[in-house]
Design brief:
The structure is a single chain. It is built from four helices and 24 strands. With about 350 residues, it is mainly β. Strands 1, 5, 6, 7, 8, 11, 12 and 16 form an eight-stranded antiparallel beta sheet that branches. It has a four-stranded antiparallel beta sheet with strand order 2-3-10-15, with no helix packed on it.
């Protein structure tokens, strides 16, 4: 009986301590956001709740996985179709035991610089700093690298470093982030921005042409700027044929990137957005039909949601989403899809 009493006491004390901790955490969030009693305080997502999955019927428009044969014993520089340069020092890749001298590895590169690739890839822009404060990233472009030997994934040697030069699609200064195994963005460092200096009539003109940094892993990399000013929208879907699940995409127009709401099984949805920014809302159903895009300005007031239990009455009401059956040309032709969505590519493939 004495043992049972002690156990119940310890259990009750642990529960009480957890409640105090949660209350203190909420107070920190309230202080950070200066939100007052009228604003809902959400519970933050865990990093492994983040998905990386775009609308399945847009998979034909995923960023191209470019392949380059490389000799691991030689210094090599590869250049992607949109201008990304990766310099791979000799003997920087860990080789398998069955590797034969003189064999070739397959180095792979994917570049995300245009809006359609951001939409189709489904890569999120949620970010938590070391204090677990929540931000939405404004991207300056992403890329993923990997390497294989007879279809077997390889890794970099410990301490190995690759150099990357990435085309500047934004004029904003950016930090560099990499994707962890739990799909969480981790800040690496403030990136260096090199420049070309052109002499014109004795005046030195600085022209920024690319982001440049050092990378140390085969994963997704992202040039980004954290934005703490976050709003949320609540929307309603009208569909001729009710075909859930839906995927909602909010494409930035004043900023670069996209946010997502996945597996919507009803006609109501909610999602986070950059505050006070011009955006475009697009919804795709399970049959690949795409809604008529809506452009609007998000509100200045800050509020974000992370759970289906969050109070969406305080989110901005989005314009009505209407899904109609699309033609096959819109679903299959990149040019027709861009025209339907009302977007254009900001970077054209290199002709070299």
């Amino acid at each position: 009986m004495r043992f049972l009493f002690c156990f119940l006491f310890l259990f009750s004390f642990q529960q009480f301590s957890q409640e105090v901790l949660d209350d203190n955490t909420l107070k920190k969030i309230e202080k950070k956001w200066d939100i007052g009693e009228e604003t809902f305080v959400p519970k933050l997502d865990k990093p492994n709740d983040f998905k990386i999955s775009g609308p399945i019927f847009l998979s034909a428009f995923l960023p191209e996985r470019q392949e380059f044969p490389i000799n691991p014993s030689m210094d090599t520089t590869i250049t992607g179709k949109y201008g990304t340069k990766i310099t791979i020092p000799s003997n920087s890749i860990a080789l398998p035991i069955n590797f034969k001298k003189g064999d070739i590895l397959t180095f792979k590169l994917e570049e995300l610089v245009n809006d359609l690739e951001f939409i189709s890839s489904g890569i999120h822009l949620n970010y938590f700093d070391k204090d677990r404060n929540y931000y939405l990233l404004e991207t300056g472009g992403m890329f993923r690298i990997s390497c294989e030997y007879y279809n077997k994934p390889l890794r970099l040697k410990r301490g190995a470093r690759l150099k990357v030069e990435f085309p500047m699609i934004s004029k904003e200064p950016m930090n560099l982030y990499k994707m962890s195994q739990s799909n969480e963005w981790i800040e690496k460092a403030v990136t260096n921005q090199p420049s070309n200096r052109v002499e014109s009539e004795g005046v030195s003109i600085e022209k920024l042409f690319s982001y440049s940094d050092i990378i140390d892993d085969f994963t997704w990399w992202n040039f980004d700027k954290p934005n703490p000013e976050i709003s949320c929208i609540a929307g309603k879907i009208e569909s001729e044929d009710f075909q859930p699940p839906f995927t909602a995409v909010l494409l930035g127009l004043d900023v670069i990137g996209a946010t997502f709401s996945y597996n919507i099984d009803k006609l109501d949805f909610k999602m986070n957005a950059w505050a006070n920014k011009k955006v475009k809302l697009i919804v795709v159903d399970a049959m690949g039909n795409i809604s008529i895009p809506n452009e609007f300005q998000t509100r200045k007031e800050q509020m974000f949601v992370t759970s289906k239990y969050d109070d969406v009455t305080k989110c901005m009401n989005a314009p009505k989403v209407v899904i109609k059956r699309n033609s096959n040309s819109v679903r299959k032709s990149r040019e027709e899809l861009l025209k339907f969505l009302g977007i254009t590519d900001r970077v054209k493939p290199s002709t070299n």
